[in-house]
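Internal tracking record. Fields below are filled automatically when a chain is submitted to the structure queue. Please do not edit lines marked as system-generated. If the sequence contains nonstandard residues, flag them in the REMARKS field before resubmitting.
Queue: standard
Priority: normal
Entity type: single polypeptide chain
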Amino acid sequence: MLALLGALAIAVGGCVCVVWAERGGPRWVRIVARVTLAVGELVRRSDKSGRGGRNSGDDG
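SYSTEM-GENERATED OUTPUT FOLLOWS
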């Protein structure tokens, strides 16, 4: 349960940093935002490759 709460806190913190960086936050916030976006992109790519590159809503 603690691991799940920790992961949720990290995810929410990363999202906050992305928004803050868009508004011109300090350097460390922009770095955390870049890392957050990169991890999100990696997760998105691994999800696509795991499903064979198909969209789950497409039937044809």
